[in-house]
Design a protein that fits this description.
Layout: H1 12-60, H2 65-68, E1 71-75, E2 81-85, E3 93-100, E4 104-108, E5 121-123, E6 126-128, H3 130-134, E7 147-152, E8 160-164, H4 170-180, E9 183-188, E10 193-201, E11 207-210, E12 216-217, H5 218-221, E13 233-234, E14 239-243, E15 246-250, E16 254-257, E17 260-264, E18 272-278, H6 280-305, H7 318-322, H8 326-336, H9 345-359, E19 374-376, E20 386-388, H10 390-399, H11 401-409, H12 420-439, H13 450-504
Parallel strand pairs: 7-12
Antiparallel strand pairs: 1-18, 2-17, 3-14, 3-18, 4-10, 4-13, 5-6, 7-8, 7-11, 9-10, 14-15, 16-17, 19-20
Helix pairs in contact: 1-6, 1-12, 1-13, 6-10, 9-12, 10-11
Keywords: Bacterial flagellum, Cell projection, Cilium, Coiled coil, Flagellum, Secreted
Family: Belongs to the FliD family.
Protein name: Flagellar hook-associated protein 2
């Protein structure tokens, strides 16, 4: 704590504070530059995030061919046959008549109950309830040592072999069978039987055999080795249907033809007619969303690079803020933060490229956005924003969805730039890269981007300047302290002299 003015009566602290304010002016200017640079850095990063988000949206909508291949289906009997487009590139029409649905193979073992009327389970001399039976170990059921089972079901490439220790429970064995084989198995407490059904439909039977090489026969122990007879098994069957006059079969009731997924639901319900058409509303929705996102991006970026710079409104220091109201600070900083990206060449170049790609024909085609009713707004103040003639766009989607798709999604090559969405994303990525080089991203090390290095330079300048200010302030305090001491000594001498003169009179 420093106290001055005891000898002189001067307010030393405030005098030095006022003198230091003049010395702080250059430091304040550096601090203002650093603050403005931070605002600029934040705006670059925000712009980069917004560009990336817009790029992702475009890629996920009009950047996908599937967006333009969406179909509506007209089906005469949807209860008998379901049809939906999955990867179709053309239209689909005709008739289907289902003769037989595909079914699953199934199999059951013999009952563990004592009899049809006696629902007790007695195995290996032990009596179990249904719950106890499921939680019993193989050893409890009289299967000692390692045991094995082999299961082969329709729709699987080969039999699956499983081995179990006798400490495994019936429940864990069935869970393993369900997880690793092509069948679903469960113990039915109502019949006392283990039932097995194929996970896939299709012709064939479920084959279950016991272990080999001296291992216990688990199939026999679980009463699943009974002969395949109508009494304890059901063969799977293929679906039989006639498609546009062609009688054919499938192992599943759900299959794909020409990019359309067909689901057979009922047999012997007569011919079912169908036809597809472009889903104009859904495609329109995606294209309109693209145009809205594009226009929003254009508006925001143009506003940013044309934002005025108010040179009379510099960033406020902490001292200046102390004397201002909150609303005054807000209004001041609104102007002080303006113009951080004014006339930025990277953004301006990107906007120019965007305007060009929206008016040019797509490489490899004879079409442009104009051909589907999308054109730049003629008012130059709109800076190339797009407008849609919905009648023309609907007509293009309905009559030639492949043309619309090509305009947006045609692949790029060594000689062709590709569709609008492809070029759009490429331009966004290039701009992102340039801005990241300049402004980095959240978490970037300062030395890895241009503005970060400049910011670091300002921080070092501020640090050195503050050290010099401390030295200057200490020097002032020493000078004023020396003056105080000198005046104190003079006063003491004067008092002594006066005392001596007064005493001699």
């Amino acid at each position: 704590m420093r106290i001055g003015g005891l000898a002189t009566g001067m307010d030393t602290e405030n005098i030095i504070k006022d003198m230091m304010q003049a010395h702080r002016i250059p430091l304040d200017k550096i601090t203002q530059k650093k603050q403005y640079l931070q605002w600029q850095l934040d705006d670059y990063r925000k712009t980069n995030r917004n560009l990336r988000d817009t790029g992702y949206k475009v890629t996920d909508t009009v950047g996908k061919q599937a967006t333009f291949m969406q179909k509506t289906m007209n089906i005469s009997n949807p209860d008998a046959v379901g049809i939906k487009a999955t990867s179709a590139t053309g239209e689909f029409s005709g008739s289907i008549e289902v003769t037989k649905l595909a079914t699953q193979a199934a199999r059951q073992g013999n009952s563990f109950f004592v009899s049809e009327t006696d629902k007790r389970i007695v195995v290996n001399g032990k009596e179990f309830t249904a719950t106890e039976f499921e939680n019993a170990t193989l050893k409890d059921l009289g299967i000692d040592g390692k045991s094995a089972i082999s299961i082969n079901a329709p729709g699987t490439k080969e039999a699956v072999n499983l081995e179990f220790e006798d400490s495994a429970t019936l429940k864990s064995v069935l869970a393993d069978i369900n997880k690793k084989t092509g069948v679903s198995a469960f113990f039915d407490s109502g019949s006392g039987k283990i039932a097995v059904s194929a996970k896939n439909t299709g012709a064939g039977n479920i084959e279950i055999v016991g272990g080999q090489g001296g291992l216990n026969d688990l199939a026999a122990g679980l009463k699943l080795d009974a002969a395949i007879t109508p009494g304890n098994s059901q063969s799977g069957s293929d679906a039989i249907f006639t498609f546009n006059g062609l009688t054919t079969e499938r192992s599943s009731n759900t299959f794909t033809i020409n990019g359309f997924e067909i689901n057979l639901k009922q047999a012997n319900s007569g011919p079912v007619t169908f036809n597809s058409a472009p889903d104009v509303d859904k495609v329109m929705e995606s294209v309109v969303k693209f145009v809205d996102d594009y226009n929003k991006m254009i508006e925001e970026l143009h506003a940013k690079i044309k934002e005025p710079v108010y040179r009379n409104f510099q960033p406020l220091s902490d001292e200046q803020k102390k004397d201002m109201k909150e609303k005054e600070i807000e209004l001041w900083e609104e102007k002080a933060m303006s113009g951080t990206l004014r006339n930025d060449p990277t953004i301006a170049s990107m906007l120019t490229k965007m305007r060009q790609m929206m008016s040019e024909k797509t490489d490899g085609t004879e079409y442009s956005l104009k051909d589907i009713g999308i054109t730049p707004i003629k008012d130059f103040k709109e800076n190339g924003k797009l407008e849609i003639n919905e009648t023309e766009l609907r007509k293009a989607i309905s009559e030639n969805p492949n043309m619309v798709s090509d305009i947006f999604t045609k692949s790029a090559s060594d000689t062709e730039k590709g569709g609008i969405a492809i070029q759009f994303r490429k331009t966004i990525d290039e701009t992102n890269k340039v801005i990241s080089t300049k402004a980095g991203s959240t978490g970037s090390v300062s030395d890895s981007f241009t503005l970060g290095r400049t910011m670091k330079g300002f921080e070092k300048q501020i640090e050195r300047f503050e050290e010099r200010l401390k030295v200057t302030e200490n020097r002032y305090w020493k000078q004023f302290t020396a003056m105080e001491n000198a005046i104190q000594r003079a006063n003491a001498q004067s008092a002594s002299l006066m005392s001596a003169l007064g005493g001699g009179m």
